[in-house]
Amino acid sequence: MAAEFLHSSRMPSSKFVTSAPELSDLAALLATSAAIALDTEFMRERTYRAQLCLVQVATDSHAACIDPLALDSLAGLTALMQADGPLKVLHAARQDLEVMEPVCGVLAPVFDTQIAAGLVGFPAQVGYAELVSTLLDVQLLKAHTRADWSRRPLSPQQIEYALDDVRYLLPTRDKLLEMLDQRGRLGWLDEELQTLASASHGVDPERAWLRLKGIAGLDEGRVALAQQLAAWRERRAIDKNRPRGWIIDDNVLREIIHRVPRSREQLASIREIPDAVVRNSGEELLAMIAACGLADPPPALPRRERPDPQLTALVKRLADIAQQTAQELELAPELLATRRDLDELARTGESAALFSGWRGATLGPALRAAL
User: Fold this and answer.
1) Residue 122: which of 276, 329, 265, 352 has the closest Cα?
2) Of 58, 232, 244, 319, which has the fewest Cβ atoms less than 10 A away?
3) What pLDDT score was predicted for residue 14?
C-alpha cells in the first residue's frame, strides 16, 4: 500500500520557495484549498525566541518548503493563517502555533492530528511517523530528526524529509475524522480544538513564577520574592533573546528565594551562581529582595510533611476510576484525567476540567460518586 500511496495522483509535487514572487504564487494556490497541511522547523537552543528556519505546507495536489531565512517577510501567508483562511492541519501543534504567531498572527482554524488520534485510542503523545505508519501504511525516514535547519544550503534529502512532515497530514486527518465519526466523538474533538485555540502560547513575565518548582508552601514574603525574581529573569531573557536558564538557572533562583541573601557576599556564596550575575546584577537582585519586606533572618522554611493518608487514598481511588473508564473508552488514561486534575479534585471537591464537556459526561458521575 505504501508504494501505491506514494505514487498516487494525490501525492503533492514539491517546491522550495525562496523569493517573494514565489511566496505570492504559492499563497494564491493555497488559498484555493479548504484545508492545508502545515509544519515548521525551528531552532531555539541558544535563544529565547525560536528561530523559524523552515515552513512546510501542502494541499492535496502540491507541497512546498518556504525558506524564511531567504525572505524578508512571510506577510504573504498572513491572510491564509487567519480565521477566514483554510483549515490548518498540524501534528502536535502547540510549538508550531507559538513559532508562527509572531510572523503570521494567531493561527485559526486549526486541526491537530495528535489530539484527534488520542480520541480514537492512540497514545496521548503519539508521534507523526507512528500515526502515518498505522493509518496509511507509509514508513517515514528519520535520518534528519536532529538536523540543524538553520544551515544553508539544505540538501535535497533534507527537503524531502521536511516535505514528508506535511505530505500525509491531510489523508491522516481524513482517516481520523472517519474513526471519530464512527465512535460518535466528533463533538469531543471540537471541544479539544477549542481548548487548543484558546491556549496562550507565550509566557507572561508576571506569571513566570508559576513554572518554578519548590515554591509551594513558602511564606508570603518568599512567594512575593519568587514572583519578582522570575518576572525579572523572564524580561531579561526576552530582552537579550537568550534562554531563561542562561540568565539564572532554576536551581540558583530557588536558592536565592530560600536563603534570602542580604549582601553581595551572601549572594556570591550561593552554589552555582555565575560570577557575572553577582557582578552585573547583584545590586538589582538585592534591591528586589529588600523590597519584599522579608524579616532578617527570614522565616524558617516549611518542614516537609508526610502526605495526608486519607487524601492519598482518595487520589488513588479517583485514579482507579479514571483508569477503568479510560479502558472502557479505549483511551490513554492521561488524556482523560491528569494527576494534577485528580489532585485538585481530591483537595477541593471540584474540577472544571473533569466536570465539564465530554469528560464530565463520561467520567464525572463516577468521580462524584467516589467523592
Assistant:
1) 329
2) 319
3) 56
Residue 27 lies in a domain: yes
- pLDDT (0 to 100) of residue 247: 96
Return d(Cα 69, Cα 154) in angstroms, integer: 12
- The low-confidence residues of the chain, meaning pLDDT below 70, are 1-14
Q: How far is CA 78 from CA 45, 181, 302, in A?
A: 27, 32, 51
Give the CATH number, domain containing residue 319.
1.10.150.80
Range of the domain at 153: 2-198
Which helix or strand (DSSP H or E) is residue 58 part of? Answer: strand 51-58
- In the prediction, which pLDDT does 96 show? 96
- How many separate domains does the chain show? 3
Rounded Cα–Cα distance for residues 4 and 233 (Å): 54
**Which residue, 350, 347, 349, 348, is CA-closest to 312?**
347
**Helix or strand or coil: residue 111?**
strand
- pLDDT for the residue numbered 199: 85
Work out the angle between the directed axes of helices 250-259 and 220-240 (0-180°, nearest 10).
150
CB 192 within 8 A of CB 89: no
The amino acid at residue 100 is: M
Whole-number Å distance between alpha carbons of 29 and 325 = 45
